[in-house]
Structures are given as C-alpha cells and as structure tokens.
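Page 47, continued from p. 46.
Same chain as before, 212 aa.
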Amino acid sequence: MLRSILFATTASLGLAGAADAATHTFSLADDGSTSQVERTFTYGDLSLTVTGAIFGYDAKTGKAAFTPIATQSHDKGIGIQNSLLDNTHLVDGSGKQEALVFTFNREVRLDNISFSYWDGNDHFALATGANVDFKGISGSGSSFYHTEGFSKDYTSDIFALGAFEKNDEYKVKKLTVSYDDTPPPSPVPLPAAAWMLVAGIGGLAAAARRKG
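Result:
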C-alpha cells in the first residue's frame, strides 16, 4: 500500500495574517455535464482552475509518462474522461493512472476534499508544491461519499490528486480551502510545475512497478 505519496516542487510562503483568513468550499459538480480540458471556478477574488492528466510508467524509457486529458463533470463530482467510451468518468488507477490538477490564483491551505463513488478499496495520492514532506496520505472512508480532512498545513497554489492503485476510483465533489482574503497577486499561469506534480506521482508509480 502506497504511503509516501507527496512530491514537492516549490517552497511554501504560507498564509498571511490570520485576521484576513477566509474559507470557501468549491462545489465541482455545479457546472453541468460537460467534457472540458480546463474548467475554472471563481469565488470573489479567488479562482480555481481544474485540469486532467493521465500518467504511467514507460517501460522503454524507465520514466513516468503523462499527458493532459479532458475532465468530465456530473452532479456527483468531477472526474476524467479518458475516451469517448468512458461512461463512468471516474478518476481511476486502471491502466494509466489518472489525476486532477488544481491551480489557484493565490496560495491556499487545503482543509478537506469530498469524494463520491468512494469505497473501502480507494486511496489517493496528493502532490503539493507547498511541502517537502513524504509522510503520505491515504483515504480512509468506506461509504459512497467520503470527506478527507487534513490536520497538517498543506499550503500551496497548486495541487495534484491522483489514483495510484488499480482498484482506486472516485470523483471529487468538493474542495474546501482557507486563504488570505486580501487582493491576490498576479495569477500564475498553469505551468510546467503542474506537470511536475503529476510526474511526481507517476515517478512513484514507476518505482513501485520496478519493485513489483
């Protein structure tokens, strides 16, 4: 069972003064049943861009391989549409593993993630640019809906969340974050850093398969 699943790419500056702290829950099931490579959610000055990716181990190169892919939104959450025949639209680990990349226009602290289509076999890998931390996170729910809270301070402007094991499958329904409620700095474009995060998860997949 995977335990060391965090991959760091940038140093965290942390949230600003607590007096300006605000909390918001993004509902990722409210923008219709549409297939989009990139979708954006806004709340006041806070914006969130969600993109999809698939990753896996390339036996020829011995490295992680990944590529952008469309996300799919329905009433029970957001997932991945890996082909026109994919009717489940789940983030899953069957074949090439799938991931969602969450990019904010400012640093936020990740408070909790709400999943749907969740059961006791499901786990997730979380990569963040905010921490040099390899302690690891795995889901612990056993019902159709599951909310995973984080007591540790995971603060960044970019996160990647992916299915790692072949039986992992779920959608992400909600994302709750805390942030400094002051005018944001200039937004950071969806960068190579996003794919570095996904590559970090993919690299762990490659290492696990080489050991298997």
